Amino acid sequence: MKTIRNILFLTIPAFLIALIILEVFFRIGIPASDPPRGFFDEKESMYYFSNDKENGIYTIGKFATIRTKWRINNMHWNYPIDYHQIDDRKLIAVIGDSYIEAFQVDVGKNYPFLLREKLKNDYEVYAFGVSGAPLSQYLHISRYVKRHFDADILIFNLIHNDFEESIHELEPDHGRFFQVSIGDNGSIKEQMPQPNYSYPQYKLWKRIIYKSALFRYIYLNCTFRESVDKLLKTNKNYESNINTDNVNSNKELIFKATNYLVKTIREENSDKRVIFVFDAPRFAIYDNILDKSNIRWMNKMMGTICANNNVEYIDLAPFMEEDYRKMSIKFNFDIDGHWNEYGHKFVGNVLFQYLRNNFK
Known about the structure:
five-stranded parallel β-sheet; 13 helices
């Protein structure tokens, strides 16, 4: 009987008080990451962000080493300004994944907005980025942009995992994004994104538990460093967040799918400027072994495909290699492979110089 009383009047209250203290601590002391809620827009067949909460804080690491502010605009994208039809200026649409979503830097410090600040007298710049999106999804987003805006220039931001994740046979669990399927006879079929009914959008209990800062800290902050270290440092088969064995054994399939996607983007935007910007194998640059990188062939592949389809192409590898040799400043965080503020400024400046020298 005494044991039951101790549990009821001592253990349970002490446990609840501890939970409350931890909840407050991970809201104020070490703020747990509080990203916007992703949702699948079934009308647009588009996965992006709910704007029921406009502003918030995003943190990375066990001690919230990286702390940034985000803002979801009227069209569900992380960007400082709302999107509207452009009347008096030309429009540049920058399309990409988490590098354009850019929760790792304060809203307004990603390169599309920095580019906007340099070009705002002549161009408006809008960004359309969502974490996990591959190249195939960029085609899907370009169609969304075409429906809602009349962009004059389309800039597609590429990273090295954009290719295999575009192919359904290689990444069958990527169904929330648009993909292509390649048959045994080489035929290519497009696969529309499908809602994932396990998302918090469809599960009330998940929406409730995500309100807890303690849960978000354990789930989001505590696992991040270990995941990055495993993928980028300790596993020799990984480079730039992809399994090099997988991509290198599927080069022919990747080339075929990539050529189809670039060709389709070009054909559907024949009256627009289309520019692909490809990230460098940065870790190979830091180690001064760029020529030995197991994924450098992807940058060269994109150069060939873009040339064949009359598409403009910027390979960031030589620019980053030269800058790192001079400055010895990394373009990404030590605990996160995404671009830091320096990386975004650098890419924005490369694009600005390119556009200034190639205005049409």
